[in-house]
Design a protein that fits this description.
This protein has 466 residues and is α/β, with parallel strands linked by helices. The chain is 43% helix and 14% strand. Strands 1-7-6-5-4-2-3 form a 7-stranded mixed β-sheet, with helices on both faces. Strands 8-9-11-10 form a 4-stranded antiparallel β-sheet, with helices on one face. Helix 5 crosses helix 7, helix 5 crosses helix 12 and helix 13 crosses helix 15.
Amino acid sequence: MENSFSKAGKRIIDWIDNYFSTVEKFPVKPNLNPGDIEKLFDYAPPLKGVNYDEILHDFEKKIIPGITHWQHPGFHAYFPANNSEPSVLAETLMAGLGVQGMKWITSPAATELEKLVMRWLQQMLKLPADFKGVLMDTASVSTLCAVLSARERVSDYTINKDGFMDKKLRVYCSAEAHSSVEKAVRIAGIGSDNLVKIEVDDLLKMNTSDLKIKIDNDIENGYLPCCVVGALGTTGSGAVDPLEEIGKICLENNIWFHIDAAYSGNALVLADFRDSVKGIELATSFVFNPHKWMFTNFDASAFFVKDSSLLTKTFSLVPPYLQTGHEDEIDFSNWGIQLGRRFRALKLWYVIRTFGVDGIKEKIGKHIELGKRFEKYISDSPDFEIITPRNLNIICFRYKSTGSKDKNAVNEKLLESINNSGKIFLSHTMIRGNFVLRFVCGQTNVEEKHIDNAWNIIRQHAQELK
């Protein structure tokens, strides 16, 4: 006879299986007000336990109505946090094992599989052979680790010990860089005022002439340039900074060069895209997120560094109770902030083995083709306009709205109307003062019919505004 855990486990797997096949029946985004879900539950915790069936029932009736369905093929907002069947299975095994992979001895397979998977990713993206990789939770934390390590390197590893004293450090990124760069600078104690935002060109790429001028001025005024963050795909439009030029400037000035490739870095598996990107070999560190476009459940961020000792000198702290006698083995807990570490390598191992490199290439390539399809719809329409050239499968556009002078207000209203319908979900960005709709087609199972449906919905809601 099955025990309650076994029975409940099978029900949950069946529920997930059914969810994958029926996700399109749900509204992509629930049309709720803050507090609507919370008030469905008791204020105080239950004194008596209940069975799994009752909890699953409440999950379906009270929690699912408040879920934004990131796996819905009508989800075109932000960047996808996509998953896949093999990734879900691996997550289940991870939960069952309950591994705490902080040291080699706490689970040798966790450390050694992580080394293997990072080597696979390095080969898949054709990253430099001298890069060494570690799995983090997010690109935000990976970028923070880069900034902290750059801070220590430029101070000859004295700030960790002595504090900042009178050191005046500078970090540089483009005006289009992700907000995680400023957050990292704040946390690192460098301060937002010492984050220098570099101008961008007409294609929203970093202006390296402005970068060089600002670095030279800072050096002349007694500042220590610490780190430059270049974007291989900005958050707003997916623009790729001139990495080779940035890398050369960093080499000339002995500055840490970190590349944030959180989303677009996944596309380096495609030879055409990889060949178009120059300068990765000049980076000190590089990050991309398989949980954004490689069909792997959040969280899984792949962080690479040219010299791993730059990390261990910054983060290594091994008290007696963590000394195991295996200190010659890689200790990934000394490569970053966290001591405790999840067994993230297992889901990447499952995904890469299930899809194969060719299968991953095929899906990512298909998503780019779907982006081109949507771009053509916009370009061919007299009512809409492309605001900046498509980058991979990211399209920034807006409704022309000839009947109103305030195009920003009209496009904001259009976005709200589209998203409240629950049929598709878009996000927005600001480009040169313009409120711009932003369309991404990277959800795992998106097809042509979903792109066509999205375009029809967008046109319909635009017509209703006239």
